Amino acid sequence: MMGTNTTARSIESADQDSGRATDQGAGRVDDQVTDPVPKRRWKHRPQGSNWGDFGPDDQAGRLNLITADKIREGVAEVRDGRSFCLSLPLDYPGGNVLNPRRHPPVLRPTLRNGRPNMNYRLFVDNESQTDVVSDDLAILHLQYSTQWDSLAHVGQLFDADGDGIPEAVYYNGYRAGQDVVGPDSADDAGIGPGGTGGTGGNLRSTSAARALGIENMAERCVQGRAVMIDLRAHFGDARVNVGFDELTGVLAADRVVVEPGDMVCLHTGFADRLLEMGRKPEPDAMENLCAVLDGRDRRLLQWITDSKLSVLAADNYAVEAHPATSHLGCCAALPLHEHCLFKLGVHLGEIWHLTPLASWLRSQGRFRFLLTAPPLRLPGAVGSPVTPVATV
Length: 392
Known about the structure:
Number of helices: 9
Oligomer: single chain
Structural class: alpha+beta
CATH class of the largest domain: Alpha Beta
CATH topology of the largest domain: Glucose Oxidase, domain 1
């Protein structure tokens, strides 16, 4: 079971530092709010979280830190008039080695008058028309390739009600089964043979994030100043668990400064290596390639809190080590996801293509750039492909 069983005796006093990261997982309680106006959907928030700081109904998290001034700071980084595409082709990595539940995109033509609508000669229906038309559809696993995680992607079992019984909740206390809903039957999940739902039913939508869906991120446009942290330049392509000491060492060596509201990108070289494999990723290599953040490092999590970064993206599979390093007791399987998505409202980007940009920035002695990276405005989705653009 993911998450920590919370009991009444785990309640901390209200004057405890709410910004302090902890190794006790989501089960630790930060404070109790007594102000009845406006009404909150929780009585207790996790220790180290910012629930309610941006309002009782906030669904944007730290995107709130990307202010008008932050956008102007990003625009000020455009000096050379060059742009970089930070997305892999969306049929990468290839296969389903990275995640057995996610598969490459499927493209099919739509139907037109009972025929495939690809290279369709309108002359067939009207002899006075010369157009040739193609129209298609896509079946996408939204987090297969270059992607954003919404705040509905990972929640925790946490006693937000203060009754001693943990419930499934997401950022700011939004509830599983109420705000984030899905089916009970396998027939209504996944894609079955022939492009049908589950084990053979009709394709239809069966899940929705009524709150915290990816459309909330899209509506914020996700544009502002970004900072590149080049881990590959220091650690090469070996698998290294990067904790607070290693990260701050890189920041100091490269004189990189992260300020409140900055969007942070971590270059590890993982996506670059995926491209070299040509849609045929090697299972053994995937487990031993490139730097990952150590989500169990409390000081690293505290740095994420204290830096006030707005989003965190990397060119590797999960930003953090997956599986995470060992830990005694019941806790989150993905501690950095817990800290960012669940506690702080920090969206995570994964499998971005950062190598060309990172190399150019290093050659120019720069680390900042303008980033534009809105996801699909797809209501109810818990993740989305993204084609981020860096402008320098």
